Each structure stands twice: as C-alpha cells, then as structure tokens.
Amino acid sequence: MRSTTFDGALKVDEGVSGSNVTSIATARIGPRPPPADWDSVSMDCPARTRYDVLFCESLLGPDSALLEAIGDRKALLVTTPTVDRLHGTAIRALLKGTNTVSTLVLNAREESKSMALVETVCNEALSHGLNRTGLLISFGGGVCSDVVTLSASLIRRGVAHIRVPTTLIGQIDAGIGLKGAVNFCGKKSFVGCFHPPEQVLIDPAFLQSLPRKFLVSGVAEAIKMGIARDAALFDLIEASTLNLLTSGFEEPVLEARELLQRSVWAMLDELRQNPYEDQGYERLVDFGHTFSPSLEAAMGFEIQHGEAVAVDMALSATIARSLGLIGGDLWQRIVDALRTASLPIFAPRLDVQLCRDALVEARRHRGGSMNLVVPAGLGRVVFLKDSEDLPDCVLEESLASLSTYAAGLS
C-alpha cells in the first residue's frame, strides 16, 4: 500500500493485490466528516448497559440456562467453600460436558474482600488461558460477585461475566447491579468498577439451602425497596415475612416469587436511570447505606450486611420522625417490620462520632452532598443534602431515642 501523508488522510487507499498481499480499501477518517474546529474533537462511544435478569428453574438441571449462556466459550466459574459444599458436585456434573469451564473455590468473605482475592481470580484466569472472548461466572453471594465483577473488568481490560447469585441479598440487590468492589484500607468497597454482567440467572431454589441468618439479611434489602419505592412490596413483607423465613422461602410460593420479582424490578428500574452514577448523586437505593458501611467496618464485618442496613434504616426513619417527615405510626410500622424479620434496629457501636464520620465519607462519595435518604411516607423519600438539613441536635436526639427504644425491647 502506498504511504499517505496527513494532507491526503481523507482519501481512501486503493486496493491493490499481489501474489502474497491483498490490500483492502480503508477510509482514513470516517464515516463522520472531520471537525471544523480541531481544538476539540469528541469520542462517541456509548457504553453497553443492557443485560437480562432471568428467573430460572432447575438451573443445575440438564436443560440449564447457564449452559446456553456459556456456549462454547472458555470460562472460569468462581464459587465459595460453602456454596461448593452444597452445590459443587451438581455444578461440576453440569459443566463436565462443556470441556471449557474450570472451577475456582475462593474463600471470599466480607472481612477478606480485598485485591488479594482479585489477584487470585486473575491468576487462575491466566493459567486457564482465558482470551478476550472468555467468561467469568460468579456462583455465590454478593461478596463473590463483587470480586468476580472487579476481576472481569481487569482481565485483558475487560471480559464478560455472568452472575448466578445463590443468596437472597444477591438475587435482589448485590447480584443484579453493575458494580463490583473490594475493601481497601478499612473502607468498605473503596476500590471498584462499573462492569455490567452479560446475564444474571436467578433460581429461587438456591434460597432453600440458606441458613436463616442469610435470608434475614436479604430481607433487609427488600424492606429497603418497599419503604423507599414500593408500598405494595412493603405491605407484602409485613404480611408474609415470618412465613417466608420459617419455610426457607418455600412457602407461601406466590408471595415468595412476588417478593423476589418486585424487589428485582424496583432495583433495576432505579439503576437504569443512572447506571454509572454520573447523572447525579441522589440515589434512592442508597437508603440504608449511609451509616451502614461505617458500622460494618467498625464491627470488623462481624455484623451481616443486611443487619447493618436495617440499623441504618431504623436510624434514618427515626431522623425522619424527628424532622416531622413521617409520623409515629409509620415509624412504628417500619421498626416492627424490621423486628418481625429478626433484624436489629440498633447497635452499640452506632454513636454520634461514627455517624458524623459516615456523613463525611458520604459527602466524598456523593459529589460533596451527604444525600442522606430518609422516608417521607411509604414509597417516598427525601434527600438530606447539607448540614443544615440534619442539625447535630436532631442526629443526637434520634440516636438517643432509638437507643432507648431498643434497650426497652431487650
């Protein structure tokens, strides 16, 4: 091919062929015309954000949607020791026929959710020979999907990943979003990414093998969406939580499926409006997630994530009551719903200093405003943005009131 100077960069090279080389006509600049002003040129590359969340049955059976999703790609499935003990034999039998999928059992826990785990996944992907069309699969709870998502975003500058959440909190919250993250220097989820999955495959049957405490933790996220966005979901939770927890989400069947579906739809509908959190920092789904990260870290991650979210929601509702945004009746319904689900409403480490530090961190993460989400009714919230929206006296009064109420229950 002949060389082309910058002056001729708008021309198209003519195709010439020889015995060993064939040149293809190539537009040097196009198909857009060059800019009139070269001081600033734009890169238009809309990100892929669409993905499907599929409700499946018998995901470990012979007609599994997972096999269809994998296809003939080389893949690495990452799971945890607990999930491997429960489902490892079945998942290996399912994947045996593919000859392209290897398995990594990763001891992923909230207290160990670090870059070291990400490095382990990347090393395994490298040794397994994953290429640009390769695939990671997270088969576990929210911590597993966090680590796998971040790993997938880094391997070869980004490979595809599929999520198979096996916990309630994974199926309605952590496993269906775009984000992945690990803890860093004592800060929960400080290092992370936005890397949408190809698919999320939800099989409610996995919930039947969960210990009660993990179901309880997941219910907190459903309560979050019920209070903040979907009054009908909150009504369903009030009526059915006790039976669902007692049966391991097996009975009542219709209520179990509706809780999952309404929670998933509410979360996805909120996320789609600002998937990369670059359209603003007022996020309804941050309800229950302002004080809870600091509380989890302060307690050495010995408290379940959903339990910390429940304490956060109880405090946020108490603040709303103190500000006159909700009345005592609704406050009592919120607290009773949390307690019926066996969730805590207070923790001794939740003090004024922790809350103030948490609000400072929230401002760093939310564009300079604390954007504390508090209820203003069922399905309605307001954002407390600045210090004048939440005076110290209101915070102190709310903490004292909630602490006294919780102590009276014990």
Task: Describe the protein.
The protein has 13 helices and ten strands. By secondary structure, it is α/β, with parallel strands linked by helices. The chain has three domains: 30 residues, no CATH class; 158 residues, Rossmann fold; 185 residues, Dehydroquinate synthase-like - alpha domain (Dehydroquinate synthase-like, alpha domain). The N terminus is likely disordered.
Q: Architecture of the largest domain, according to CATH? A: Up-down Bundle
Largest sheet: 6 strands, parallel
**3D shape:** globular
How do the SSEs run, as a string of H and E? EHEHEHEHEHEEEHHHHHHHEEH
CATH topology of the largest domain: Dehydroquinate synthase-like, alpha domain
| CATH class wording of the largest domain | Mainly Alpha
Task: Say which CATH homologous superfamily of the largest domain is assigned.
Answer: Dehydroquinate synthase-like - alpha domain
How many DSSP E strands?
10
Mean pLDDT across every amino acid position: 91
**Strand residue percentage:** 5-15%
Low-confidence stretches: 1-15
CA-CA gap between termini: 83 Å
SS summary, helix count: 13
Strand order of the biggest β-sheet: 1-8-5-4-2-3
Instruction: Evaluate the radius of gyration.
Output: 25 Å
Structural class: alpha/beta
Domain count: the total is 3
| Proportion of helical residues | 40-55%
Task: List the defining traits of the structure above.
alpha/beta, globular, 3 domains, 43% helix, 6-stranded parallel β-sheet, Rossmann fold, 410 residues, two-stranded antiparallel sheet, Dehydroquinate synthase-like, alpha domain
